[in-house]
Amino acid sequence: MGSKKYVVELSEEDRNTLEWFISTGERKAEDNTRARILLKADDGLTDAAISEHVGCHPKTVSNTRKAYVERGLAAIHRRKPDREYEVKMDGHAEAHLIRLACSEPPEGHARWTLHLLADELVTLDEIDFESISHETVRQRLKKHPETASL
């Protein structure tokens, strides 16, 4: 098999940071695992050996090595720090959702479901949605206790 595409070569400072990271405080187990993977990879162990030592899948090892080469020490955290999300609902739309959720359900239904609410929001003329997921509806309703009976 050929040489590894993503080779981990830690600087002395990075190694000290990772060792400190593992030895102090409460951290997410997955973050500690990634830190251990980087330390073992820097020691020259194979992916199979690292996965055995650390207790993870070999693919996790290769993904962590790749993330380190691309992002540096930020790779020990799973999510990229530059993730941005588009806000789907503003206050106006949320107010419509609450009003709708507290109203009578459509004919033939005993209560509003998240899917029914999402579909109804898309059909409203006052709100301009191409689509909205039931999960977005769930997250918004979760913040309002008056809709807890849904």
Structure description:
The radius of gyration is 24 Å and the shape is elongated. The relative contact order is 0.10. Helix 1 runs antiparallel to helix 2 and helix 3 packs across helix 4. The chain is an all-alpha fold. The model has no long low-confidence stretch (mean pLDDT 86). It has seven helices and no strands.
Q: How would you spell out the order of helices and strands?
A: HHHHHHH
Biggest sheet record: none
Shape: elongated
The value of Rg in angstroms is 24 Å
Distance between the termini: 56 Å
Structural class: mainly alpha
Query: Any low-confidence stretches, pLDDT <50, length ≥5?
Result: none
Instruction: Give the integer mean of the pLDDT values.
Output: 86
Give the amount of beta strand, in percent. under 5%
What oligomeric arrangement do these chains adopt?
single chain
Please estimate the helix content: 40-55%
Count of DSSP strands: 0
**Total helix count?**
7
Question: Any key phrases for this structure?
Answer:
7 helices; elongated; 150 residues; mainly alpha; single chain
Outline the secondary-structure elements.
Layout lengths: L11 H12 L5 H14 L4 H8 L3 H14 L19 H11 L12 H10 L10 H9 L8
Helix pairs in contact: 1-2, 2-3, 2-4, 3-4, 6-7
Summarize this structure briefly:
This protein is mainly alpha-helical and 150 residues long. It has seven helices and no strands.
